[in-house]
Amino acid sequence: MEQQRLEQQLAFLLELDKLKNVYRQTMVLHEDRQENDAEHSFHLALMAAVLAEHAKEPVNVQHVMQMVLIHDAVEVDAGDTYAYDAAGNADKRERELKAADRIFALLPEDQAAEYRSLWDEFEARETAEAKFANALDRIQPMLLNYKKGGISWIRHGITEEQARNRNCAIVSDGSDTIGALCEEIIEAAKREGMLQ
Amino acid sequence: MEQQRLEQQLAFLLELDKLKNVYRQTMVLHEDRQENDAEHSFHLALMAAVLAEHAKEPVNVQHVMQMVLIHDAVEVDAGDTYAYDAAGNADKRERELKAADRIFALLPEDQAAEYRSLWDEFEARETAEAKFANALDRIQPMLLNYKKGGISWIRHGITEEQARNRNCAIVSDGSDTIGALCEEIIEAAKREGMLQ
To answer: B13 and chain A: CB distance < 8 Å anywhere?
Structure first.
């Protein structure tokens, strides 16, 4: 029994090795290449622990960490959809639900339900933990992109309004302090010609 | 005050972006390239949550997750030292202590102490959490390497004894089930000509 559980858990863990090959629009800071989902999720989990005091409501930090570690798991099948890609975002939900059905089912039944529920919770953005996790998910690429000279905003011709509408309300919903940071980044990026 | 804390926390979090550029000997499963520390730490944090039931003693899962997320932070300065590199391992401790002094001090004072203590705890391998975290740190590259045809063992001419001595006692110290898996991997790798 324990052996069979371990095998199912390893199947899930090794499947998620594929997140190391799902590339995002954000660039890493010190190499000329795009960040992948595993690196992004690593960064979010660390941010969840280090920045927890800034959450708008008290959060269960472990819960947030687990949520951000699997929030992109569906992209193993569904791929990364760029935040400002309207066509890609049209069928994103459908593709991701199908992926969630397959990927979380690799786990033993109790954990399959637990991790699927974590993913649904992240997507719904209703609990304190999900709001904080989503705030981190929005601010992390903004931080990297700003530090990298706004490269992916410039490449895609993103406007100040697009960046603000897509990100700052959701960030502020999870944290006042980090919400203020979101506004500051957009102001600075505008001033420095990174956002139209 | 809150603003200053946030700035210090961001300095630490952005410094650790460099872990995305510290490459290990282990290969990722689905591309022809080495894994980096951020990807490795992502994988360990996820394993900590999914495999916690296999820990030899009950563990505080959040504590294990935080520990594995920062266990390689010192490699930003000290680089990755291959497990079987005797010369590199001779002055590893000294290089890493110096790095720890610098990197954790980027955080606000209370968190600098907290994260430095987590790193020291991981290194000492005495608490239940540190033993389990170290078990994951040893089994993860073995799993990937075995699934990848033993590529890094073959490249470096590693023997069955080296692999067993370096890994399985430490893995077993953190988990009986995962300790048994360590032995199974070594037996299979020997049988399949991946280990000498």
So the answer is: yes
Residue A46 maps to a domain: yes
- CA angle at residue A85 from A192 to A99, to 5 degrees? 130
ipTM for the complex? Answer: 0.96
- A5 to chain B: closest CA residue: B51
> Which domain CATH number covers A174?
1.10.3210.10
Is A23 at the interface with chain B, CB within 8 A? no
Q: Provide long-range contacts, Cβ within 8 A and 24+ apart, for A149-156.
A: A149/A194, A150/A189, A150/A192, A150/A193, A150/A194, A150/A195, A151/A27, A152/A25, A152/A26, A152/A27, A153/A189, A153/A194, A153/A195, A154/A194, A155/A25, A156/A25, A156/A82, A156/A84
- Residue B163, domain member (yes or no): yes
Euclidean distance between CA atoms B11 and B144, whole angstroms:
32
Say yes or no: A113 contacts chain B, CB-CB below 8 A.
no
The answer to whether the Cβ–Cβ distance between B42 and A46 falls below 8 Å is no
Per the confidence metrics, is the pTM higher than 0.95?
Answer: yes
Residue A1 predicted with pLDDT over 80: no
Q: B6: distance to nearest CA of chain A, Å?
A: 8
Residue A170 has pLDDT above 90, yes or no: yes
What average pLDDT does this structure show over B159-183? Answer: 97
If one counts the domains in chain A, the total is 1
Judged by average pLDDT, the poorest of A46-50, A83-87, A119-123, B182-186 is A83-87
Q: Nearest CB to B50: which of A12, A53, A144?
A: A12
Instruction: Note whether residue A72 is domain-resident.
Output: yes
Domain that holds residue B84: 2-191
Q: What angle do CA A16, B119, B160 make, to 5 degrees?
A: 60
Q: Is B48 on the interface with A (CB under 8 A)?
A: no
State how far the Cα of A27 lies from the Cα of A18, in Å rounded to an integer: 18
